[in-house]
Design a protein that fits this description.
By secondary structure, the chain is of the alpha+beta class. The chain has one domain. Helices cover about 30% and strands about 30% of the residues. The chain has 5 helices and 11 strands, in the order H-H-E-E-E-H-E-H-H-E-E-E-E-E-E-E. The strands form 2 sheets. It has a 6-stranded mixed beta sheet, covered by helices on one side. A 5-stranded antiparallel beta sheet has the order 1-7-6-5-4. Helix 4 runs antiparallel to helix 5. The longest helix has 18 residues. The chain is globular and about 45 Å long. It starts with a helix and ends in a 6-residue tail after the last strand.
């Protein structure tokens, strides 16, 4: 009797397993692994000299550009309209996760890993866009924008700041508390690494 019952249960499990959709049998996406791409530690001085940064806040002549604000607000802060890099595209949570992975592949370092990992946990879906501003004498600011539907307002969820490259020996650590790097100016540019805030002053004499 016991042997017959076990055999019956085994048959039920086999039938249920064979009835599962083929997609369910596929291996899980790379999006859900902790470290899907080799990401070396950031050399902050080198990154500040010639690489793409992912700041949380960018202050330009005292006006702060932060995540959560709309493209038009950024236009106003910077005094210029954006250029469209990628127009609005609909993406599912999985598609957006794959998109973030592609960004990480292009910028494989721990700074991007942790920043993009935090964004991934928000599980964004809806419409996505990328806009870009040229900052004369400074470099390029790129904003990654999202809105849950066409009727909702847009908001930046990630920034890329690519500064004009300078020799590594021009990057200096600011004296005092905290880890703050500076580049000579004008424009004068500082990066507070602990707060991930970049301050830019295009005015002679500093801020």
């Amino acid at each position: 009797m016991r042997r017959d019952l076990l055999a019956c249960l085994g048959l039920v499990v086999l039938v249920l397993a064979s009835a599962r959709p083929a997609a369910a049998l596929e291996p899980p996406s790379l999006c859900w692994r902790d470290y899907p791409i080799p990401t070396p530690a950031v050399n902050y001085e080198k990154a500040f000299a010639s690489e793409t940064l992912a700041p949380g806040t960018i202050t330009v002549n005292g006006k702060s550009v932060t995540t959560g604000i709309a493209e038009k607000a950024i236009d106003g802060y910077l005094g210029r309209a954006a250029t469209v890099v990628e127009d609005w595209q609909q993406r599912s949570e999985q598609e957006q996760c794959d998109y973030l992975l592609d960004v990480l592949r292009r910028h494989p370092n721990t700074m991007h890993l942790y920043t993009l990992g935090d964004i991934k946990l928000k599980k964004l879906t809806g419409l996505f866009r990328v806009a870009e501003w040229q900052l004369p004498g400074v470099g390029t600011l790129r904003a990654f924008l999202h809105k849950s539907s066409a009727a909702e307002p847009d908001a930046a969820y990630l920034y890329h700041l690519t500064l004009l490259a300078v020799p590594l020996d021009q990057v200096q650590r600011k004296k005092g508390k905290g880890y703050v790097l500076t580049r000579p100016g004008p424009p004068r540019i500082e990066w507070n690494i602990e707060s991930n805030r970049i301050s830019i002053s295009t005015r002679a004499g500093g801020r």
